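From the methods appendix. Each design record in this collection lists the tokenized structure first, followed by the designed amino acid sequence. Records were kept in a plain field format so they could be parsed without special tools. The example shown here is representative of the layout used throughout.

RECORD:
FOLD TOKENS (253 positions):
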């Protein structure tokens, strides 16, 4: 049995998910495609809910390379270890729903930088981290970061399409090595967020079964709005919400 968390986050979104809005980058990459920085998540499933425009998400996984069309109303999601790259097709806008709110901002995402960069944690961190703010200097850094991720991604994709999964598998392993020291902090965030939310449901079910639904007396409603607009995320310009358990990712994300 898992012990309850020492700290419980107040008023998380349902399931303690993360929420943001993205407008896909329109910067052209080396392969002539406009879009974001390819990356994977180590323990978080991510979902795109398309709210406007057209585009695609390119994915690399053990079942190969896919190019999934995105249009208003479509939903795409990818499990941990799936490399994904958002591609701009024209005014693409999405709402992002992220499992385990707070973990991606704490380093769960790893860019597909070339192997030499992934092998050097200090160099990786320097290239993955953006300056603070939203000005021209930050945009230039975000573009450099995107281009380096695309460089590594294209090699992974070429090998996978040719039937060689070795480089993709080694990238996954390199990503896992990079984040290993962060896992204890992630566990704290998970306990206080997603796990606590699930355990609250268990306690409520116990209360209902016992005929003592006193927790319903705490019923209320909440509201929020974006607290930062137009930041530079991995995939595009990002509107973010300052929610419990989430660190706004203007540095590492």
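DESIGN:
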């Amino acid at each position: 049995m898992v012990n309850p968390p020492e700290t419980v986050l107040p008023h998380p979104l349902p399931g303690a998910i993360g929420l943001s809005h993205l407008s896909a980058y329109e910067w052209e990459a080396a392969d002539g495609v406009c879009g974001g920085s390819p990356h994977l998540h180590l323990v978080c499933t991510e979902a795109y809910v398309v709210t406007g425009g057209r585009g695609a998400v390119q994915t690399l996984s053990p079942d190969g390379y896919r190019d999934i069309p995105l249009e208003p109303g479509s939903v795409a999601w990818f499990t941990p270890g799936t490399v994904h790259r958002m591609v701009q097709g024209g005014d693409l806008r999405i709402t992002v729903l992220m499992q385990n709110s707070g973990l991606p901002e704490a380093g769960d995402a790893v860019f597909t930088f070339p192997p030499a960069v992934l092998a050097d944690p200090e160099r990786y961190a320097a290239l993955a981290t953006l300056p603070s703010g939203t000005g021209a200097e930050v945009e230039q850094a975000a573009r450099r970061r995107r281009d380096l991720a695309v460089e590594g991604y294209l090699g992974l994709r070429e090998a996978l399409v040719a039937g060689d999964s070795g480089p993709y598998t080694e990238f996954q392993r390199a990503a896992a090595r990079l984040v290993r020291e962060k896992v204890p902090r992630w566990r704290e965030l998970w306990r206080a967020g997603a796990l606590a939310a699930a355990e609250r449901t268990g306690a409520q079910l116990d209360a209902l079964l016992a005929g003592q639904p006193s927790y319903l007396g705490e019923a209320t409603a909440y509201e929020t709005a974006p607290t930062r607009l137009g930041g530079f995320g991995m995939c595009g310009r990002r509107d973010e919400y300052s929610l419990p358990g989430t660190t706004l990712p203007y540095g590492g994300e």
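APPENDIX NOTE: Helices lie at 115-118, 121-128, 136-161, 166-179, 183-209.
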